Amino acid sequence: MSSKPSSVVDALATRQTPELILDEGRMLRNVDRLRAHLEPLGVTLRPHMKTAKSIEVARRVLTGGAGPATVSTLKEAEELFAAGVTDILYAVGIAPHRLPRVQALRAAGCDLSVVLDSLEQAEAVVAASANAPIPALLEIDCDGHRSGLKPRDPAIVEIGHALVRGGAHLRGVLTHAGESYTARSESELVAFAELERSAAVDAAGLLRQAGLPCPTVSVGSTPTAHYARNLDGVTEVRAGVYVFFDLVMAGIGVCQIEDIALSVSTTVIGHQPDKGWVIVDAGWMALSSDRGTASQAVNQFGGVVCDAAGKPYPDLLLIQANQEHGIVAVRPGSGARLPPLPVGTVLRILPVHACATAAQFDAYAVLPATGGPLQSWPRFRGW
Amino acid sequence: MSSKPSSVVDALATRQTPELILDEGRMLRNVDRLRAHLEPLGVTLRPHMKTAKSIEVARRVLTGGAGPATVSTLKEAEELFAAGVTDILYAVGIAPHRLPRVQALRAAGCDLSVVLDSLEQAEAVVAASANAPIPALLEIDCDGHRSGLKPRDPAIVEIGHALVRGGAHLRGVLTHAGESYTARSESELVAFAELERSAAVDAAGLLRQAGLPCPTVSVGSTPTAHYARNLDGVTEVRAGVYVFFDLVMAGIGVCQIEDIALSVSTTVIGHQPDKGWVIVDAGWMALSSDRGTASQAVNQFGGVVCDAAGKPYPDLLLIQANQEHGIVAVRPGSGARLPPLPVGTVLRILPVHACATAAQFDAYAVLPATGGPLQSWPRFRGW
């Protein structure tokens, strides 16, 4: 259940803009949807907290109070651990200079694991494991997106041996189909999910054939998590932006516009009638400069513009953004009519990329699922 | 004077990454350069603090301890006022719901002025001026960039009368040649500066002919501020990014790469040798998604990659960025050689857009102009 439109409009009318509005009802539906999809597939969900960066969101997303969780920075790990989350995977390739912070968290009782894809990193982890073994997963490159070893690279076994021989813990393999963000159809999404699964399972097989342990086989991205049909051999799935969704995910077809739980409130501060422009007080400082839908079938520019209740206006977009100014106009060529939006009108803009937009704010202004006044949930940031 | 390269390298080797590194020596040179250019032109410099958002930077940039200063948010005004800055121009069109905060700052002793370009806003300012007049400047559109009234629009006089009649203060006119960022030659930069000057002076003339006051004639952007040859009739110039400069400004020709005072430190965390990729721990979370040089003659992608001492590698760029991962590679087609950059190497990346990159951090790690250990200068954020 979400807050009633009329009460939302009343609540936003008395607040400063821009704010990061979180519709808790939509968020809970998104969380339930992925849980329900993964449960029959027999895998653990390890939500990625890099999008939310919030203890209040973590409490509603993590399947258990203690995790499991995925993070993209040690700052996220430290904040979550301070709030009682103890099973954490740090899913960005480990930089040797971060190992003292990893050991400090582990010594305090956090089961923090790290990720690597080179012998150099394995040697650093081994050196830091002298008194207390650090668990490490090998990163596998399933789709050429970024980091990782190819699924059948003999270096997988070599690095696995180096870890075990040196006294670190080899916890398994991990992959992420970042290229699934380029998918253009359901069949492509299903294929990316299978690519992810088979790459991780192949790499796990290499380790096991060599007599090495591989208890964890971790895959995931929001698109593949929702379209995986078969996860045989996989033990856990990671996903992050599914909690909120955004216009990039809607463009891929993973969600509907109506599922997007985040928006940025803004106020009309001017007009350029000759150009059909409405000037608002949300620029890239509030929304980020992410233009992730520019390469999709439907370019949503800087975001979809909604009324204060959260209902999108037909073909009304944030077409340009400066630091604290946004320019709202109808989609070029759409023929849609610009609604009357006098100075002072409060609007809400759906984000292109939820992770990037949320990062511009220190708190969520939450529309509670049970109704009632907006609540403030702090966000953390930094590294 | 800047810190010695060898001591910088030593200092960075022991720190976490990514950090926002500020070379104070370069900053002070940039600050001196614009001061020296404007002094003989007989105008006041009103630096825009939206880029720096820092009291320590403000102390080195503002010509007097009390200002004058320009801001893009009331949060910046409140922070600067708390630090003793009392002459502040809030240069984003006023939203009526912000007027109580404006009045609170003014009641506390801050000479805060606002900007508007419509009768609706003027009426709101008049209504809020009942007990204490608010000073307002009329925003003029000199180049079709964004907000403002055309320089000869009769509405200028109409709104001016509405302010004066209603008991607000008409403080003058303001314009900003935002389109100067598209300039491709020195002659275009000079022409944009003159466009800005003449638009503001024309609008001021309209007001004065109608018997209205116009004490302030305010122009400015970093490109035009540096290329103005004649500022007759102008009383003050605003600029912000000149304090740090960035790759967009270097692309326009307003500065050299060697003048850029900001960089982001990062650590090598992996390689994809087949692709010529070096993976680093600075993604868009550290650098922003701004790609402002993509439309310039030389596309610098996500930033120019330097060694830890701050010296650029030939044609080495951040070619892609995810949230916490950056991909470093040589410029496509350049034929440059990828230097050996083992895991753990510390690099520094020059920002495409200093305002956007700085906004991703809560503090500057400052290389002091006089040498010595790095210092931390906090940044403020939010609205």
Low-confidence stretches of chain A: none
Q: Any idea what the CATH architecture of the largest domain in chain A is?
A: Alpha-Beta Barrel
Count the beta strands of chain A: 17
CATH class of the largest domain in chain A: Alpha Beta
Number of domains of chain A: 2
Q: Secondary-structure element sequence of chain A? A: HEHEHEHEHEHEHEHEHEHEEHEEEEHEE
* Count of helix runs of chain A: 12
In the CATH hierarchy, the third-tier topology of the largest domain in chain A is known as: TIM Barrel
Beta fraction of chain A: 15-25%
The quaternary structure here is homodimer
Q: What do the pLDDT scores of chain A average to?
A: 96
* Gyration radius of chain A, in Å: 22 Å
Considering the protein shown, what is the CATH homologous superfamily of the largest domain in chain A? Alanine racemase
Protein name (chains A, B): D-serine deaminase-like pyridoxal phosphate-dependent protein
Keywords (chains A, B): Lyase
Domain D-serine dehydratase-like (chains A, B): 261-368
InterPro entries (chains A, B): Ala_racemase_N, D-amino_acid_metab_enzyme, D-ser_dehydrat-like_dom, D-ser_dehydrat-like_sf, PLP-binding_barrel
